[in-house]
Amino acid sequence: MAEVRIEALTKYYGDTCAVNSLNLVVNDGDLVVLLGPSGCGKTTTMRCVAGLERPTYGDIYIGETRVNDLEPRERDVALVFQSYALYPHFTAFDNIAYPLRLRKTPKQEIERRVRDVAELLGITHTLERPPGLCSGGEQQRIALGRAIVREPVVFLMDEPLSNIDALLRVYMRAEIKRLQHELGTTMIYVTHDQVEGMTMADQIAVMNQGTLQQLGTPSEIYDLPANNFVARFVGSTPMNFIPGALQTENGSTVHKSDQFVIPVSAEMADRAAEVCPGGQCTLGIRPEEIRFTMDEEGANQAGVFLLEPLGSETILDIEKEGLLLKVKDVAASQVREGDTLSLSFNRFHLFDDATGQAIR
Ligand code: ATP
């Protein structure tokens, strides 16, 4: 087990900057998720840590050792990829045993360790079968078993669940998290699926265009996004954004847009005056933070044009003068399409239009 420290990691492929001066510390025993859209540099980062790519600049440490010049096999990391890359003609037992045989581990020890790992993963019944006779979930567990049996100091997982169906993914992500806690092994886990990232991580590193946008716990990332990219990327029903500007009305500050006038606390207004003197900023609010009443006389009115029932909650699609908002209704209100609602904006964020950074 070990800490992983990435210092100013930069990787160019020709003119393409895949990773740009990335600094990241993964504490010993933590599960850190690299989260971001396709092409943001997650896999490249992972491959640099694994030793499959050489950084253009920067250093990578595993524990106290600078590993830049070490071969992949000398780094004591285990990789699990999207494709399980199991040997089709080997049994599950032989697939899991493979890294131990490479190391010339004694036969009896192989037998014991493979069976222990298989039991941990609940795949003892598959051990005599080739992968082709196992389900997708079992194949994924066999690939995990092959990684675990090596007892590496770091696990590197690159979208390991993307080939299995949605329902099984929900179970497998919990299983990987449980295993990681049980084994206490440092893990870097790559995904573009923000729900997977949020549910699994001790810390999430959100990346975009090769740069780290924010590192934080899932709740920090969700509740206090550092900028409008993180705010937009995280949240299964995305955050709403209302472009506008801060203005003073009757001695108080409001966020004024073409559609709404929303009061801003004195504290937030003071901060905005410091960092965003022009006042041009976009208000961001999560769908569950917009409250509504069915009062047609109230302030900030808007019409419901679509209902999206999800069982435990309904998403109300609301439109006002060309601006679309999504509002979560968890209280099973009797709202119908075509109704007019009066909205109030509970906990919101302001993002400086010039920089995209959160004002707080
Ligand atoms: P995905 O989720 O689609 O796998 P990612 O976040 O893992 O994306 P990377 O695979 O790290 O992103 O790619 C980052 C950038 O580097 C992309 O622009 C990609 O096209 C480029 N890139 C990656 N590998 C190579 C390569 N071997 N040669 C040239 N460009 C590459």
Task: Please describe what this structure looks like.
With 360 residues, this protein is α+β, with helices and mostly antiparallel strands. Helices cover 26% and strands 34% of the residues. The strands form four sheets. It has a six-stranded mixed sheet, with helices on both faces. Strands 13-12-11-14-20 form a five-stranded antiparallel sheet. Strand 4 and strand 5 form a beta hairpin. The longest helix has 18 residues. The model has no long low-confidence stretch (mean pLDDT 92). Bound molecules: adenosine-5'-triphosphate (ATP). Adenosine-5'-triphosphate (ATP) binds next to strand 2 and helix 1.
Termini separation (Å)? 37 Å
- Name the CATH homologous superfamily of the largest domain: P-loop containing nucleotide triphosphate hydrolases
How do the strands line up in the largest sheet? 6-7-8-3-9-10
Kindly identify the CATH topology of the largest domain: Rossmann fold
What's the structural domain tally?
Answer: 2
Inertia-based shape: elongated
CATH-derived architecture of the largest domain: 3-Layer(aba) Sandwich
Tell me the name of the CATH class of the largest domain: Alpha Beta
- Average pLDDT, rounded to a whole number, is 92
Number of E-state strands? 20
**Radius of gyration from the alpha-carbon trace, in angstroms:** 25 Å
Into which percent range does the helicity of residues fall? 25-40%
